[in-house]
Amino acid sequence: MNLLKLLNVSTLSVLMLLCTTVANAKSGIKEDKLKAKKVAFFTQKLNLNSEEAEVFWPVYNEYQEQKENLFEQRKAIHEQFARSLHKMPNKEVEESLDKLMAISKDEATLLETYVTKFKDILPDKKVAQLFVVEEDYKRFLLQQIRNTSNHR
């Protein structure tokens, strides 16, 4: 009886692992397609030539990675507040608020650092346009999501 239970649990574990692996693979494919769309969108909207694109994309990807990291830190604190602010001791709330302020400072420093790096790669007008294109891309993605959900 115990052996049968162990076999069932093992089979179930393998099945769950397989499903997770397949889901992650599909997610990876979607992520790759999304990244390719973003590169095409930005390259076209910024009118990047091949030399600019070759230097721009590694720096921009580095910037996005660091920006995403700060976003995740901020999100974790916001989620903690939403979940349990009423239970948190004042000291913990104060520490979390201090972390939020530090994240804001880090975001400002990150922006300042990367604007300087982008200006070393691109003309100032293209650097300014980059921030417009980022907002345009967000709107583009939201529109695609709306269109997809309307077709279901």
TrEMBL record:
Keyword annotations from UniProtKB, A to Z: Signal
May I ask which residue range the UniProt record assigns to the signal sequence?
Answer: 1-25
Q: Which domain of life is it from?
A: Bacteria
Q: This protein is called what? A: LTXXQ motif family protein
Organism encoding this protein: Acetobacteroides hydrogenigenes
